[in-house]
Task: structure prediction
Amino acid sequence: MADTPTIFHIAQVIGITASAFLSGTTIALSYYAVPSLLLAPTPLLLRQWRAMYDRGKVTGPPVSILSGLSYAYLAYHTHYNNYKNPLLSTGHASDTSVAGLYVAAALLSLSVAPFTTIFMLGTNAKLMGMCDEMEGLGVGEEVQEKGKRESARALAEWWGVLNACRAFAPLGGALVGIWASVR
Result:
């Protein structure tokens, strides 16, 4: 077994920490922020949702990519350089199975973007359209999607549900990354 370089352990810490951080911040938005948004009048709800969304779209993707690249690095070097954690390895896991776990962790961490595109893009677009519409509204006025009578409040609540579901992908990445790291 080759000696495991420090950069390998740093990549383990970065991959696990980044995916756990992304999962935690994502679920926190749904669990703490969205219920608070729902207490606000519609124009304020939309302004706050947009601010939250704008921050998330700037921070979430780089963290997801950082985590995914860290796991990809670990998969490559585990498979081709026979790196294992000599303190925790049982000697029973093959290099290929540990590399496969790191690949799974990478895919889970990176799957936030496809999930967002497939399941959340429509809701995001509706909310963004309402944000644009609400610019001229007073505090007590409702913004509704034209023709469907969907309220901003209902869309924000649904966004929170979808966002909570999205948090499980990077959580899975962190858990699989931990599992691979201790094998």
Residues 67 and 141 are 42 Å apart (CA to CA).
